[in-house]
Amino acid sequence: MDLLVPRYGEGSLSDVVPSLLAGLGVPGAVDVLGVSGPARVCVLLVDGLGWRLLREHGEDAPFLSSLAGRAITAGFPATTASSLAALGTGAPTGEHGLVGFSFAEGGELLNALRWSRYDAAGHVDLRESLVPESVQLRRTAFEAAAGAGVAVRLVLPREHEGSGLTRAALRGGRFEAVLGFGDLVSRVGRALRSADRVLCYAYHGDLDALGHVYGPSSEPWRWQLRFVDRVAEAIAAGLPEGGALVVTADHGMVTAGERVDLDTVGGLREGVRAVAGEARVRHVYTDTPDDVRERWLSVLGERVWLVSRAEAVAAGWFGPRVAGHVLPRIGDLVVAARDSLVLVRSEAERFQAGFTGHHGSLTAVEQEVPLLVAGR
């Protein structure tokens, strides 16, 4: 698998909302994706719906497959916390600063998805010590839209209300809690009719969950894709005149092949202060990066892309710019898995270590996500 650097500024997830806001009259917004125009639009993000997986299983998603669209890139790492921040802020990873599933910040290792202490025995809520609005400093694209008079609605699972990730990445809209597919469709329809200019963001996460547990392309995953397709079709059927549905995703997914256990393989923890990230991309924090790099490459070889923080930044992995306060969050070494390798942690990530499906790296399967548009 070749390395695919995200196409920030011309075809990435961080370009979706700014492109739509250009058509909603929000000052400073630029439509680089060619999707602006509708005055009432819903962005439906389906967690884990990779472009290549959708094309491979088009028979399970006839409606989505019928829509005009193309592949865009998720951003790096191709993981939910980073991608939702890219969508909500309209900025690449190096600017919004949520540089992975977990990373170093303020003397802690932060699990950005749960906003809890990474590698802790139980849930340790860090919303007070690592205030989400201070960790992610940028004004969100939703705040910019609301400030320009656009009605912004967040149609999300009720457990996401007030979460650290929601506060950091998605602030600025009115929260509309949902329990399942039924009220997701209903609330989106009502949101799109609530004003003359509307931006509605809706999220569904179960496809990703089934991909992790059973694997992408598994029978349970394909059944969930069929249900997602029906939901998207129902939303599109209920669009108001001049409305649009934009379907995208936060990452694709690969099925785990060879597993290397970072908690048990000899030599890999020598000289390492901490390891964060997830199984397909790791932040390695160390005071002796040259020595650690040599040891890791002696074990992993060409099965990974292993670079220093400076090299990752120079190559544009995190975007064209990386803010000064974001730099220390990136590992002294960044390790991105190739092919189907996964770098598991049997002690620190016991549950995730058993996953069948994984994501995060710079392969096309993980990076490419759909950008599909249905209008009325």
Automatic annotation (TrEMBL):
InterPro entries: Alkaline_phosphatase_core_sf, Phosphodiest/P_Trfase. This is Alkaline phosphatase family protein. It comes from Saccharothrix lopnurensis.
